[in-house]
Design brief:
The structure holds two protein chains of two kinds.
Chain A (H helix, E strand, L loop, with lengths): L4 H12 L3 H6 L2 H8 L12 E8 L8 E2 L4 H6 L11 E2 L5 E2 L4 H8 L3 E8 L7 H10 L10 H8 L10 E4 L31 H11 L11 H21 L13 H14 L6 E7 L7 H25 L6 E7 L19 E7 L5 E3 L17 E2 H12 L5 H4 L11
Parallel strand pairs in A: 1-7, 1-8, 5-10, 5-11, 6-7
Antiparallel strand pairs in A: 2-4, 3-4, 5-9, 8-9
Helix pairs in contact in A: 5-11, 10-11
Chain B lengths: L31 H11 L5 H8 L3 H9 L35 H35 L3 H13 L10 H13 L5 H9 L2 H6 L13 H11 L7 H10 L3 E5 L5 E5 L9 E3 L2 E3 L3 H8 L3 H15 L6 H13 L4 H9 L17 H12 L6 H10 L21 H16 L3 H4 L1 H4 L7 H13 L5 H12 L14 H13 L8
Classes of the chains: A alpha/beta, B mainly alpha.
């Protein structure tokens, strides 16, 4: 933070002496405009992680269906997916039939299925379990998220406002960092300041936000001024920076489709973005699950398929890996409302560049349930460690809060 | 097991604590700037008239008027809440046994759940709106500020199906004990239906002790980690067995001490042994030096500055012990102290979203809260009656990121552009006839920021208002003054000082 003081006072001096036009271009984006489209910003050709959060607790059993385990049909008399409909991956498990486009990606070797992911003493509250996944801390309350800790640790350029972008209207806790400010962008339309009625207004605005030569001292002044400055510049610059991108796929006209289209646009605009976060849901299927889950999974399959088609057309598919997660799976036995209640372990998908396709870990044992729930076989922090170490190339110990073995799912 | 993190950034103010005089009454200069500081910390900032009124008193009289709550009987006493719908007879027959329902019954259950969820949403909206409007209007702002403090401390939420009636009863408890006895409040909280449900004490029974409440009671509510053992948690959980509540048809809950489910064996807790009840456990906790230090540190971080020095914490802790955990006399000392009015404490905190929104309403004379503002508060990161977890809101730096700052600035813009603004905020309207950019800029920066603005920014604001040096903007005129003043009000609220408390 203190490293930026010089630079910020430079901004302010420039502004006051009437050089605000020059000063407002004195940032990393000026270079981007000058050199567009290649080679892009620092890190523009580096690896990207996209995280998709299946909000609400997705039923893993009807996503990766254990059609070869007879108990599955005993626990799911009305919700069980018939053997003949399952898109088989091996002799035991297969995809829900609505995942057909995703099955093609699996068949091409671009999908790793990690079975039975969870954590000890699982919490059945949406809030708390989401927080546990986001902070990678099942037993403590942390003020930063696992992706935030990665961003702080990775030595990314401090002046890049888009080291990570959350495609949501609230910043997810996973991206809360100590020294990296992550913008949350729900959609380009509606993102930004609603005050831009004229350019002068905006100029004065920027200068005020950076005004730290005030007649008081506050331990928070520099932090607030820096983030205000980031927020304003980011809101102004992002739409311009991604404007030159043309999608090469047809995305579903759904919130997830729009989010992944924007994610591909950001990746393809070479902003140096390393982490993107996308939300999908809600999967909280206590009642008449099939209708809701099928719609959401079909949407996922279509959107992720379009995403990788688009990325490939721009030569970016190999450098983008996507990870899905949900705060918990669901109860093994269906309930009386043709739904399922909050459960525990569930599969995680790793998709795209660098993934060694296949199934990792065995399906949780349906004959040894944990109070009606699937016992986990792989700690979710192992999946995080795999992504941090094998994909993003950083040590994972401090980021995931312990030493967890990595999986062979990434080369 | 804690996830290791990098060194936490410290937001303790620069400079040195004057330890010998920290809690002595402040007798230095008194002006609107200091009056506004007191009103921001002990409330939500107040209206421009409130600042004038308090600035005209002595600091001691000002604090007296705040810690002795004025009469609030003119305020709406409670939100209008719907009684939660009761499922039709037989709708859930066989549900607990896991029997499959026929499709018609499944549809009826779905319809009932939608009805219940919609009712819950309306109740939550009613409670949030009621509380925000009370914060804006109250003549006793410290009562609401303390209620907010306790809400973020003894957290509960609707997360586990707690009704609005139960949550509102808890809110009323916090208001009743705003500056009351902390030990008594802790005991009431331990018997509060919303808390019993939130931390699972309603399923803490002799046969299957549940440690959730006992753990958080010590870790987050009274002592802090390191001041008890896992064994103390297990033993005290046994003491709370049987404390549960009865759910009433009107949606409220009633505390029940179910003797049959209580473990009346001997427990050993923090070095003492006996057939302890939950009441005994709380009594023992409050004999621990760690308890007074824990509350002292939390009060200082909320009202004075972050990461307070251990010497200062010890001084406030000693006061708490001296006053037997009665908060009123302690806050009375703290809010009139040298350390509270020191330059080190000035603007040393970040406004919470609630402080930001309520304070802006007060400054601009807007008593009503619109539905859209509840969503705005959510995007800013604070939903009343819905703390993020049992630890409450982290506050400080956590309030500020690109998204929350954009939302704050867009909110400020909405307030400045509100067609009613010049009618509601007479102090803004009064500046218009001057047609003087300097006078208008001065009024805006004095009232919104107590003059906490740099000469350069002030000059820029005057230039903006006057249209000087900016080719596309004409001179200030009758035609553009409305728009220009709104723009300038917005720009003033976009300065970092406005984010600071």
């Amino acid at each position: 933070m203190h490293g930026n003081n010089m630079k910020r006072s430079g901004f302010l001096l420039g502004a006051i002496s009437g050089l605000s036009v020059v000063s407002s271009l004195d940032n990393v984006f000026a270079a981007a405009f000058a050199q567009a489209p290649l080679p892009g910003l620092p890190g523009a050709s580096d690896r990207v992680l996209v995280v998709i959060n299946f909000q609400g607790g997705n039923d893993g059993l009807n996503t990766v269906v254990p059609y070869g385990l007879p108990d599955y049909y005993r626990f799911r008399p009305s919700l069980g997916i018939p053997q003949g409909d399952v898109l088989r991956l091996d002799d035991t498990v297969g995809f829900n039939p609505v995942l057909a486009p995703f099955k093609k990606m699996y068949d091409a070797g671009n999908v790793a299925v990690v079975q039975g992911v969870g954590y000890p003493d699982p919490d059945h509250s949406h809030f708390r379990s989401t927080e546990i996944w986001q902070t990678a801390a099942p037993r403590t309350y942390e003020t930063t998220g696992w992706l935030g800790r990665y961003l702080d640790d990775a030595g990314l350029p401090k002046d890049n406002l888009f080291n990570a972008v959350a495609l949501s209207n609230v910043l997810p806790e996973a991206l809360v960092a100590k020294s990296t400010d992550v913008p949350a962008v729900d959609a380009l339309r509606g993102y930004g300041l609603r005050s831009d009625r004229n350019g002068s207004d905006r100029e004065a605005f920027h200068e005020f936000a950076r005004d730290t030569t005030v007649p008081f001292r506050s331990p928070y002044l520099d932090a607030v001024a820096e983030i205000e400055d980031h927020a304003q510049r980011g809101a102004e610059e992002l739409p311009k920076l991604v404007a030159g991108y043309t999608p090469q796929a047809t995305y579903p006209a759904t919130p997830l489709g729009r989010s992944l289209a924007l994610a591909a646009q950001i990746v393809g605009s070479k902003l140096g973005t390393r982490v993107l976060y996308v939300q999908h849901g809600s999967f909280d299927t206590h009642v008449t699950q099939k209708q809701t889950q099928d719609r959401l999974l079909a949407d996922f399959a279509n959107a992720i398929s379009a995403f990788y088609t688009d990325l490939a057309a721009h030569g970016n598919d190999k450098r983008v890996m996507t990870m899905t997660f949900s705060e918990f799976g669901r109860r093994v036995a269906e309930n009386a409302s043709r739904g399922t209640d909050h459960g525990e372990a569930a599969p995680v998908f790793l998709i795209g560049g660098g993934v060694k396709g296949g199934i990792y870990g065995s399906h949780p044992d349906l004959t040894r349930l944990n109070m009606g729930n699937l016992a986990f076989g792989t700690d979710f922090r192992s999946v995080y460690a795999t992504v941090i170490e094998r994909w993003l190339g950083r040590p994972s110990l401090a980021i995931v809060g312990g030493s967890f073995p990595t999986l062979a799912a990434i080369a | 097991m804690a996830a290791p993190t990098t060194d936490p950034a410290t937001f303790r103010p620069a400079g040195t604590l004057d330890s010998a005089n920290a809690l002595a009454p402040y007798n230095g200069p008194w002006d609107r700037r200091r009056a506004a500081h007191l009103l921001r910390r002990a409330g939500f900032g107040g209206s421009p008239a409130d600042v004038e009124r308090v600035a005209a008193l002595s600091p001691q009289a000002a604090v007296d008027g705040i810690v002795r709550f004025p009469d609030t009987s003119s305020l709406a006493g409670a939100p209008a809440l719907e009684t939660p719908p009761i499922p039709p007879r037989g709708l859930y027959r066989g549900f607990a046994e896991g029997m499959a329902a026929d499709p018609e019954v499944a549809d009826q259950r779905k319809a009932f759940q939608m009805q219940r969820n919609a009712s819950r949403r309306r109740n939550l909206i009613a409670m949030q709106t009621w509380w925000l409007e009370r914060m804006i209007a109250t003549p006793a702002p410290l009562q609401e500020k303390m209620t907010l403090f306790w809400h973020g401390h003894f957290t509960s939420s609707p997360e586990k199906g707690t009704t609005a009636q139960e949550l509102f009863a808890q809110n009323r408890l916090f208001r009743q004990y705003a500056l009351g006895n902390i030990r008594e409040l802790t005991l009431h909280v331990a018997q509060d239906p919303a808390m019993l449900r939130y931390l699972d004490n309603n399923v803490n029974v002799k046969a299957h002790p549940n440690e959730n409440f006992a753990r958080e009671l010590m870790e987050l509510f009274t002592l802090g980690i390191g001041n008890y053992t896992e064994q103390d948690i297990r033993e005290s959980a046994r003491a709370f067995t049987g404390w549960t509540f009865r759910h009433e048809d009107d949606g409220s809950g009633t505390f029940v001490d179910a003797g049959a489910r209580h473990d009346d064996g001997t427990k050993t807790f923090l070095g003492r042994s006996g057939n302890f009840s939950g009441t005994d456990i709380i009594g023992i906790i409050f004999t621990q030096p760690a308890a007074s230090r824990f509350f002292a540190a939390k009060l200082l971080a909320f009202f004075v500055y972050d990461d307070p020095e251990p010497q200062l914490v010890d001084q406030v802790a000693a006061l708490l012990v001296k006053h037997n955990f009665e908060l009123q006399p302690v806050m009375s000392v703290l809010l009139r102290s040298n350390v509270f009015f020191s330059e080190r404490a000035y603007r040393a905190l970040v406004k919470s979203p609630v402080e930001f929104v309520v304070g802006t309403h007060q400054l601009f004379g807007v008593p009503k809260v619109q539905l859209v503002e509840l969503g705005t508060l959510r995007t800013m990161g604070q939903v009343l009656f819905y703390p993020p977890n049992v630890k409450g809101w982290d506050g400080g730096k956590a309030w500020i990121n690109s998204q929350t700052v954009l939302t704050r600035e867009n909110f400020a813009n909405g307030v400045a552009q509100n067609p009613q603004m010049l009618q509601d905020a007479a102090w803004v309207a009064r500046t218009l006839p001057t047609m003087d950019p300097k006078a208008i800029a001065l009024a805006l920066t004095q009232t919104l920021l107590q003059g906490d603005v740099s000469p350069a920014a002030m000059a820029q604001l005057v230039a903006y208002l006057g249209g000087a040096g900016q080719a596309e903007m004409g001179q200030l005129s009758g035609e553009n003054i409305d728009e220009r003043v709104r723009g300038a009000a917005y720009l003033t609220m976009a300065m970092p000082a406005y984010q600071l408390c």
